[in-house]
Structure prediction request, 128 residues.
Amino acid sequence: QVQLVESGGGLVQAGDSLRLSCAASGGVLITYTMGWFRQAPGKEREFVAAVAWSHTWVGGRPYYADSVKGRFTINRDTAKNIVTLQMNNLKPEDTATYYCTADRSGRASSDAPSYDYWGQGTQVTVSS
Prediction:
């Protein structure tokens, strides 16, 4: 059973940075797509960033939601089964619970139903 455990959330001010980590275990994770979603109170869960495995899609390159492009960076360390999300120049609208997720197919997707496994989430709060 794949398990995903997030860490690194917290309370910061606008313009600050945070680095989220996701420790993954229990599966052949090297072939999975690994991603991050977020959900703010009263809003739907939304895609943030992901890095696919399959060479038939984006060839392992990361892809991002437009709202975070240029500010957030996703990286994966396949040897350690860790995925990180470096978040720079944070804005109050980035406030949300951030979820690490994994998709067995290895394809590129920004749709939450495509993902098979989810962590419990870590809270990020950005004050103005």
